[in-house]
Protein backbone atom coordinates (compact mmCIF):
# COMPACT_ATOMS: atom_id res chain seq x y z
CA UNK A 1 0.00 0.00 0.00
CA UNK A 2 2.80 2.43 0.90
CA UNK A 3 4.45 1.80 -2.48
CA UNK A 4 1.22 2.63 -4.30
CA UNK A 5 0.53 5.65 -2.12
CA UNK A 6 3.88 7.33 -2.73
CA UNK A 7 4.87 5.97 -6.15
CA UNK A 8 5.23 9.49 -7.58
CA UNK A 9 7.84 10.51 -5.02
CA UNK A 10 11.25 9.78 -6.58
CA UNK A 11 13.75 9.84 -3.73
CA UNK A 12 13.64 7.00 -1.22
CA UNK A 13 14.35 9.27 1.74
CA UNK A 14 11.72 11.72 0.58
CA UNK A 15 9.17 8.93 0.25
CA UNK A 16 9.95 7.75 3.77
CA UNK A 17 9.50 11.22 5.26
CA UNK A 18 6.25 11.60 3.34
CA UNK A 19 5.03 8.24 4.54
CA UNK A 20 5.70 9.11 8.15
CA UNK A 21 4.10 12.55 7.88
CA UNK A 22 1.00 11.17 6.20
CA UNK A 23 0.76 8.44 8.81
CA UNK A 24 0.81 11.05 11.57
CA UNK A 25 -1.97 12.91 9.78
CA UNK A 26 -4.14 9.88 9.09
CA UNK A 27 -4.18 8.88 12.72
CA UNK A 28 -4.45 12.39 14.10
CA UNK A 29 -7.04 12.34 16.80
CA UNK A 30 -10.01 10.45 15.41
CA UNK A 31 -10.94 9.32 18.90
CA UNK A 32 -9.79 12.58 20.50
CA UNK A 33 -11.68 14.94 18.20
CA UNK A 34 -14.89 12.99 18.70
CA UNK A 35 -14.43 12.77 22.46
CA UNK A 36 -13.70 16.48 22.85
CA UNK A 37 -16.49 17.67 20.58
CA UNK A 38 -18.91 15.12 21.97
CA UNK A 39 -18.07 16.08 25.53
CA UNK A 40 -18.72 19.75 24.82
CA UNK A 41 -21.90 18.93 22.94
CA UNK A 42 -23.17 16.71 25.70
CA UNK A 43 -22.58 19.40 28.30
CA UNK A 44 -24.33 22.08 26.23
CA UNK A 45 -27.24 19.76 25.68
CA UNK A 46 -27.25 18.92 29.38
CA UNK A 47 -27.64 22.51 30.56
CA UNK A 48 -30.33 23.27 28.00
CA UNK A 49 -32.59 20.43 29.08
CA UNK A 50 -34.38 19.98 32.37
CA UNK A 51 -36.14 16.71 31.72
CA UNK A 52 -35.07 13.87 33.97
CA UNK A 53 -34.84 11.47 31.03
CA UNK A 54 -32.50 13.84 29.24
CA UNK A 55 -30.34 14.27 32.32
CA UNK A 56 -30.18 10.50 32.75
CA UNK A 57 -29.10 10.01 29.14
CA UNK A 58 -26.43 12.71 29.46
CA UNK A 59 -25.10 11.11 32.63
CA UNK A 60 -24.96 7.72 30.93
CA UNK A 61 -23.11 9.23 27.98
CA UNK A 62 -20.47 10.83 30.18
CA UNK A 63 -20.07 7.50 31.98
CA UNK A 64 -19.49 5.77 28.63
CA UNK A 65 -16.84 8.37 27.76
CA UNK A 66 -14.99 7.62 30.98
CA UNK A 67 -15.25 3.88 30.43
CA UNK A 68 -13.79 4.14 26.93
CA UNK A 69 -11.18 6.73 27.87
CA UNK A 70 -8.22 4.35 27.57
CA UNK A 71 -8.35 2.60 24.23
CA UNK A 72 -5.75 0.53 22.39
CA UNK A 73 -3.77 1.93 19.48
CA UNK A 74 -5.30 1.13 16.12
CA UNK A 75 -3.80 -2.19 14.96
CA UNK A 76 -2.33 -2.57 11.48
CA UNK A 77 -4.68 -5.47 10.81
CA UNK A 78 -7.51 -7.20 12.60
CA UNK A 79 -9.17 -6.04 15.78
CA UNK A 80 -8.09 -6.01 19.40
CA UNK A 81 -10.18 -6.95 22.42
CA UNK A 82 -11.32 -4.13 24.65
CA UNK A 83 -10.97 -4.22 28.39
CA UNK A 84 -14.08 -5.20 30.31
CA UNK A 85 -14.65 -1.57 31.26
CA UNK A 86 -14.20 -0.29 27.71
CA UNK A 87 -16.47 -3.03 26.37
CA UNK A 88 -19.15 -1.92 28.81
CA UNK A 89 -18.67 1.65 27.64
CA UNK A 90 -19.04 0.63 24.01
CA UNK A 91 -22.22 -1.29 24.80
CA UNK A 92 -23.59 1.75 26.62
CA UNK A 93 -22.77 4.00 23.66
CA UNK A 94 -24.58 1.63 21.31
CA UNK A 95 -27.60 1.58 23.61
CA UNK A 96 -27.68 5.38 23.78
CA UNK A 97 -27.26 5.66 20.01
CA UNK A 98 -30.51 3.72 19.60
CA UNK A 99 -32.37 5.64 22.29
CA UNK A 100 -34.94 8.43 22.05
CA UNK A 101 -32.52 10.97 23.56
CA UNK A 102 -31.87 12.56 20.18
CA UNK A 103 -29.04 14.92 21.06
CA UNK A 104 -27.08 12.36 23.07
CA UNK A 105 -27.91 9.59 20.58
CA UNK A 106 -25.99 11.37 17.82
CA UNK A 107 -23.01 12.05 20.07
CA UNK A 108 -23.01 8.43 21.22
CA UNK A 109 -23.03 7.17 17.63
CA UNK A 110 -20.09 9.43 16.76
CA UNK A 111 -18.11 8.22 19.75
CA UNK A 112 -19.04 4.61 18.99
CA UNK A 113 -17.31 5.06 15.65
CA UNK A 114 -14.20 6.38 17.39
CA UNK A 115 -14.09 3.37 19.72
CA UNK A 116 -14.56 0.92 16.87
CA UNK A 117 -11.82 2.62 14.87
CA UNK A 118 -9.45 2.49 17.84
CA UNK A 119 -9.93 -1.25 18.23
CA UNK A 120 -9.45 -1.88 14.51
CA UNK A 121 -13.06 -2.53 13.53
CA UNK A 122 -13.09 -0.30 10.46
CA UNK A 123 -16.38 -1.67 9.17
CA UNK A 124 -18.07 -0.91 12.48
CA UNK A 125 -16.59 2.57 12.64
CA UNK A 126 -17.66 3.44 9.11
CA UNK A 127 -21.18 2.14 9.74
CA UNK A 128 -21.52 4.30 12.86
CA UNK A 129 -20.31 7.45 11.14
CA UNK A 130 -22.40 6.76 8.05
CA UNK A 131 -25.49 6.51 10.26
CA UNK A 132 -24.78 10.01 11.61
CA UNK A 133 -24.21 11.36 8.10
CA UNK A 134 -27.62 10.10 7.04
CA UNK A 135 -29.51 11.27 10.14
CA UNK A 136 -31.66 14.24 9.03
CA UNK A 137 -32.30 15.21 12.66
CA UNK A 138 -28.61 15.46 13.58
CA UNK A 139 -26.92 18.83 13.90
CA UNK A 140 -25.29 19.77 10.60
CA UNK A 141 -21.84 20.26 12.18
CA UNK A 142 -21.99 16.75 13.65
CA UNK A 143 -23.13 15.30 10.34
CA UNK A 144 -20.20 17.01 8.66
CA UNK A 145 -17.83 15.69 11.33
CA UNK A 146 -19.09 12.17 10.69
CA UNK A 147 -18.43 12.68 6.98
CA UNK A 148 -14.91 13.89 7.72
CA UNK A 149 -14.11 10.93 9.97
CA UNK A 150 -15.62 8.51 7.47
CA UNK A 151 -13.33 9.89 4.78
CA UNK A 152 -10.23 10.14 6.96
CA UNK A 153 -10.45 6.48 7.86
CA UNK A 154 -10.38 5.49 4.19
CA UNK A 155 -7.76 7.83 2.76
CA UNK A 156 -5.42 5.00 1.83
CA UNK A 157 -7.98 2.43 0.71
CA UNK A 158 -11.25 4.12 -0.27
CA UNK A 159 -12.47 5.05 -3.74
CA UNK A 160 -10.85 8.45 -4.43
CA UNK A 161 -13.80 9.82 -6.40
CA UNK A 162 -16.23 9.02 -3.58
CA UNK A 163 -13.94 10.48 -0.96
CA UNK A 164 -13.39 13.66 -2.97
CA UNK A 165 -17.09 14.19 -3.55
CA UNK A 166 -17.82 13.94 0.17
CA UNK A 167 -14.85 16.02 1.27
CA UNK A 168 -15.72 18.75 -1.24
CA UNK A 169 -18.95 19.36 0.67
CA UNK A 170 -16.91 20.22 3.77
CA UNK A 171 -14.61 22.79 2.16
CA UNK A 172 -15.16 26.51 1.84
CA UNK A 173 -14.81 29.62 3.91
CA UNK A 174 -16.74 29.42 7.16
CA UNK A 175 -17.15 25.64 7.04
CA UNK A 176 -16.21 24.19 10.47
CA UNK A 177 -14.06 21.37 9.08
CA UNK A 178 -12.61 23.19 6.07
CA UNK A 179 -8.96 22.87 7.10
CA UNK A 180 -9.13 19.17 7.89
CA UNK A 181 -11.13 18.45 4.73
CA UNK A 182 -8.58 20.31 2.56
CA UNK A 183 -5.80 18.40 4.27
CA UNK A 184 -7.51 15.11 3.45
CA UNK A 185 -7.92 16.18 -0.18
CA UNK A 186 -4.20 16.98 -0.33
CA UNK A 187 -3.35 13.52 1.03
CA UNK A 188 -5.55 12.04 -1.69
CA UNK A 189 -3.56 14.06 -4.23
CA UNK A 190 -0.38 12.46 -2.92
CA UNK A 191 -1.95 9.02 -3.06
CA UNK A 192 -2.89 9.51 -6.70
CA UNK A 193 0.47 11.03 -7.64
CA UNK A 194 -0.79 14.60 -8.09
CA UNK A 195 2.19 16.07 -6.27
CA UNK A 196 1.89 19.60 -7.68
CA UNK A 197 -1.75 19.83 -6.58
CA UNK A 198 -0.88 18.44 -3.17
CA UNK A 199 1.88 21.02 -2.70
CA UNK A 200 -0.53 23.80 -3.64
CA UNK A 201 -3.07 22.68 -1.04
CA UNK A 202 -0.47 22.16 1.69
CA UNK A 203 1.06 25.57 0.97
CA UNK A 204 -2.34 27.21 1.32
CA UNK A 205 -2.99 25.38 4.58
CA UNK A 206 0.44 26.30 5.92
CA UNK A 207 -0.31 29.99 5.34
CA UNK A 208 -3.94 29.92 6.51
CA UNK A 209 -4.73 31.54 9.84
CA UNK A 210 -8.25 30.16 10.16
CA UNK A 211 -7.28 26.50 10.46
CA UNK A 212 -6.04 24.64 13.56
CA UNK A 213 -2.34 24.92 14.40
CA UNK A 214 -1.98 21.16 14.07
CA UNK A 215 -3.15 21.35 10.46
CA UNK A 216 -0.60 24.07 9.68
CA UNK A 217 2.17 22.06 11.33
CA UNK A 218 1.35 18.92 9.38
CA UNK A 219 1.10 20.93 6.16
CA UNK A 220 4.61 22.21 6.79
CA UNK A 221 5.84 18.64 7.34
CA UNK A 222 4.23 17.52 4.11
CA UNK A 223 5.69 20.46 2.17
CA UNK A 224 9.15 19.45 3.34
CA UNK A 225 8.50 15.81 2.50
CA UNK A 226 7.39 16.76 -1.01
CA UNK A 227 10.36 19.07 -1.59
CA UNK A 228 12.55 17.36 -4.24
CA UNK A 229 15.58 19.33 -3.05
CA UNK A 230 15.33 18.15 0.57
CA UNK A 231 17.86 15.55 1.57
General shape: elongated
Multimerization state? single chain
The helix fraction, in percent, is 55-70%
Overall pLDDT score: 79
Query: How many β strands by DSSP?
Result: 0
* Distance, first to last CA: 24 Å
| Fraction in beta strands | under 5%
Secondary-structure-based class equals mainly alpha
Q: How can the largest sheet be summarized?
A: none
Work out the helix count.
Answer: 12
N-to-C order of helices and strands: HHHHHHHHHHHH
Identify low-pLDDT runs. 1-16, 21-33
Radius of gyration: 19 Å
Domain Ancillary SecYEG translocon subunit/Cell division coordinator CpoB TPR: 24-207
InterPro entries: SecYEG/CpoB_TPR
Pfam families: TPR_21
Keywords: Membrane, Transmembrane, Transmembrane helix
How would you explain this protein's 3D organization?
- The protein is built from 12 helices and no strands.
- The protein has helices at 2-5, 12-26, 30-48, 52-67, 84-97, 102-118, 122-133, 140-152, 160-168, 178-191, 195-207, 213-225.
- Helix 3 packs antiparallel against helix 4, helix 3 (30-48) packs antiparallel against helix 6 (102-118) and helix 10 (178-191) runs antiparallel to helix 11.
- Mean pLDDT is 79; it is low at 1-16 and 21-33.
Amino acid sequence: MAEDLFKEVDEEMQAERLRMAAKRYAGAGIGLIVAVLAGIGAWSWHVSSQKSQALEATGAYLTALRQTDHLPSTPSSGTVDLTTTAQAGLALLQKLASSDAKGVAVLARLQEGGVQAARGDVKGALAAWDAVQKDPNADSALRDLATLLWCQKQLDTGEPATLRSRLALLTGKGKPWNGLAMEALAVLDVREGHVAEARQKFAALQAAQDVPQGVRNRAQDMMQALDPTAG
